[in-house]
Design a protein that fits this description.
- By secondary structure, the chain is an all-alpha fold.
- Helices cover 75% and strands 0% of the residues.
- It is built from eight helices and no strands.
- The chain has helices spanning 2-25, 41-60, 65-88, 93-111, 115-139, 149-162, 167-189, 200-204.
- α1 (2-25) runs antiparallel to α2, α2 packs antiparallel against α3 (65-88) and α3 (65-88) packs antiparallel against α4.
- It is globular.
Length: 205
């Protein structure tokens, strides 16, 4: 038993090391970022803690090896997407597509019927799409909206992973948390309108 816990912890830490390396060298950039992201020591530590803790937490659930590996792969993709969005203001489509495929496999493995997961993706993605469209209309053509279309796709992936009815409360909690953080930054730091704050890390929490 202790050997299994140690192995899964090592696997989680190894996944964190790989995730940090990918985040440091992710090739795409937006919003005028430099050609390479400056490594963030605090982010590296937090990622290692997150992946190691996730490996131990999933081990406590007593899942079959296949389900455990799929859950770790899903968490890896989502965490990497959140880190990249935080540092580069970008949610890569390949990561979201891979996460969606893993979530669909997990839904089929868990219940044998992916319909609740697909419905969760439709509901969560549809709600976020409505918010995105409203933000675009409010911000106008020349100002960046609070939400990006990547956030819409991420919400659909989260809905696919959680299914109904869990997707909506989780999405609402993420949106409220992001809104609270944005309000705090505006009040505490005098953040100007139009400055982009990534939503993905808060949705993933």
């Amino acid at each position: 038993m202790r050997n299994m816990i140690a192995l899964r912890l090592i696997a989680g830490v190894a996944a964190g090391l790989l995730l940090n390396a990918l985040a440091d060298h992710w090739p795409e950039r937006r919003w005028g970022a430099a050609a390479r992201v400056t490594p963030q020591p605090l982010r590296r530590v937090l990622v290692l803690l997150a992946t190691g803790g996730a490996a131990l937490g999933l081990q406590q659930l007593g899942q079959p090896p296949a389900a455990h590996l799929l859950h770790m792969a899903l968490l890896f993709c989502l965490l990497l997407a959140g880190v990249i969005d935080w540092e580069q203001r970008l949610l890569p489509d390949p990561l979201l597509l891979l996460a969606a495929g893993i979530a669909l496999l997990l839904a089929a493995l868990r219940a044998g019927n992916p319909a609740p997961a697909v419905m969760g993706a439709i509901v969560a993605g549809g709600c976020m799409l409505a918010a995105y469209a409203g933000g675009r209309c409010y911000a106008g053509a020349h100002a960046p909206p609070a939400l990006g279309f990547g956030d819409v796709k991420l919400a659909a992936v989260l809905g696919l992973a959680l299914g109904v009815p869990a997707a909506l409360p989780a999405l609402l909690a993420g949106v409220l948390l992001a809104g609270a953080v944005a309000l705090f930054l505006r009040v505490a730091r005098g953040r100007h309108r139009g400055v982009f704050m990534p939503y993905a890390p808060w949705l993933l929490l």
